[in-house]
Design goal:
The complex is a heterodimer of chains A (114) and B (112).
Chain A: E1 4-7, E2 10-13, E3 19-25, E4 31-37, E5 43-49, E6 56-57, E7 64-66, E8 76-78, E9 87-94, E10 104-105, E11 109-113
Parallel strand pairs in A: 2-11
Antiparallel strand pairs in A: 1-3, 3-8, 4-5, 4-9, 5-6, 7-8, 9-10, 9-11
Chain B: E1 4-5, E2 10-14, E3 19-21, E4 24-25, E5 33-39, E6 46-52, E7 60-61, E8 64-69, E9 74-79, E10 88-96, E11 99-102, E12 106-111
Parallel strand pairs in B: 2-12
Antiparallel strand pairs in B: 1-4, 3-9, 5-6, 5-10, 7-8, 8-9, 10-11, 10-12
The chains are: A mainly beta (114), B mainly beta (112).
């Protein structure tokens, strides 16, 4: 089955700790995205990547970092500089911006601070 | 501006009835895409319908259809014959360059 997987489903972070959220897709999509969702709010873009080894900051990139070493994978690290990391994180992918703008989403990771 | 506005925080509909969710947006572009996504309690974001701005014909997917008014920058979603499984948060979104900009969402409750 083609799709997007995110792991873990739940993640707990201690103060001062960096944590990494996994996002993998087997749809052969070029572009991948990370969003943050806070309770009762819409999605806000953290980072996005259109091709391997390239990525761009979104609207709320401070305190986060990403890498795109493989087409299939786009992990997100929540660093200790992110002071309010508790949120629901969604990963998405699209075939290629400009060709088909439709984004497909993974099941999400809920991050909680201990 | 990059705003997408969903003016209805919450809506209710009786099972088998029709409901319309509102969405307006800002843009200075002539070509862009518009989307409605559904987020059920599982929180998985599911694409409901999409519209390409240069197409005048309103998109339709089974019980879901849109009323796209380009000049008014309006993109409402009509759900016909509402079912209990339609209960969810619905998000309107539009492309902005290589990004999607989302509205704050509308909670849809379906009464049996």
């Amino acid at each position: 089955d083609g799709g997007i997987t995110q792991s873990p489903k739940y993640l707990f972070r201690k103060e001062g700790q960096n944590v990494t959220l996994s996002c993998e897709q087997n749809l052969n999509h070029d572009a991948m995205y990370w969003y943050r969702q806070d309770p009762g709010q819409g999605l806000r873009l953290i980072y996005y990547s259109q091709i391997v080894n390239d990525f761009q900051k979104g609207d709320i990139a401070e305190g986060y970092s990403v890498s795109r070493e493989k087409k299939e994978s786009f992990p997100l690290t929540v660093t200790s500089a992110q002071k309010n990391p508790t949120a629901f994180y969604l990963c998405a992918s699209s075939i290629y911006p400009g060709l088909d703008e439709t984004q497909y989403f993974g099941p999400g990771t809920r991050l909680l601070v201990l | 501006a990059q705003t997408v506005t969903q003016s209805q925080p919450e809506m209710s509909v009786q099972e088998a009835e029709t409901v319309t969710l509102s969405c307006t947006y800002d843009t200075s572009e002539s070509d862009y895409y518009l989307f409605w996504y559904k987020q059920p309690p599982s929180r998985q974001m599911i694409l409901v319908i999409r519209q390409e701005a240069y197409k005048q014909q309103n998109a339709t997917e089974n019980r879901f259809s849109v009323n796209f008014q380009k000049a008014a920058k309006s993109f409402s979603l009509k759900i016909s014959d509402s079912q209990l499984g339609d209960a969810a948060m619905y998000f309107c979104a539009r492309t902005y360059g290589n990004k999607l900009v989302f509205g704050a969402g509308t909670i849809l409750r379906v009464k049996s």
